[in-house]
Amino acid sequence: MRRLLLDTYAFIWWVSGNESLGQVARGLVADVDNQIYVSAATVWEMSIKQQLGKLKAPADLESVVERSGFSPLPIGLFHAQQAGSLPTHHRDPFDRMLIAQAQAEGLTIVTQDSAFPAYGVRLTNASE
């Protein structure tokens, strides 16, 4: 069993059926033996992008997470402190939160973001 945290684009690609989510990553997410997490930071980021007109996504993202069989990952105080303490390899606060959560919870992030490896967190390439 693998414990995977979807970054925002991996989650969007999964929900929309976008083929940018590669076959290997799609197989890992679809595998019922794996535990898939979606961070509150991802839903927050998507909601902001929806409001700005930069993203079209379902209005009730919580239901989408639930229907997909994914586990919500709330943001805790420890996560917030860790995200703020990370080196500034990456300036995006949402991505920094995902990195902090993955480190704290022992998760592998499904992403294609080239800045993530600098943090030494376990990764799976979302494009493969």
Q: How is this structure best described in words?
A:
The chain has a five-stranded parallel beta sheet, with helices on both faces. The chain is α/β, with parallel strands linked by helices and 128 residues long. The chain has helices spanning 8-16, 23-30, 40-51, 61-67, 77-85, 93-105, and strands at 3-6, 35-39, 71-73, 108-111, 123-125. It is 45% helix and 15% strand.
Key terms:
128 residues, alpha/beta, five-stranded parallel sheet, globular
- Rounded to the nearest angstrom, the radius of gyration is 14 Å
Count of runs of 4 or more consecutive helical residues = 6
Q: What portion of residues belong to β-strands?
A: 5-15%
Helix content: 40-55%
State mean pLDDT (0 to 100 scale): 95
Overall 3D shape: globular
Terminal CA distance reads 19 Å
Give the biggest sheet.
5 strands, parallel
Q: Write the H/E string, N to C.
A: EHHEHHEHHEE
Structural class: alpha/beta
Low-confidence stretches at least 5 residues in length (pLDDT < 50)?
none
Number of strands: 5
Enumerate the strands of the largest sheet in spatial order, edge to edge or round the barrel. Answer: 3-2-1-4-5
Task: Summarize it.
This protein is an alpha/beta fold. It has 6 helices and 5 strands, in the order βααβααβααββ. It has helices at residues 8-16, 23-30, 40-51, 61-67, 77-85, 93-105; strands at 3-6, 35-39, 71-73, 108-111, 123-125.
Topology (SSEs and partners):
Elements: E1 3-6, H1 8-16, H2 23-30, E2 35-39, H3 40-51, H4 61-67, E3 71-73, H5 77-85, H6 93-105, E4 108-111, E5 123-125
Parallel strand pairs: 1-2, 1-4, 2-3, 4-5
Helix pairs in contact: 3-6, 5-6
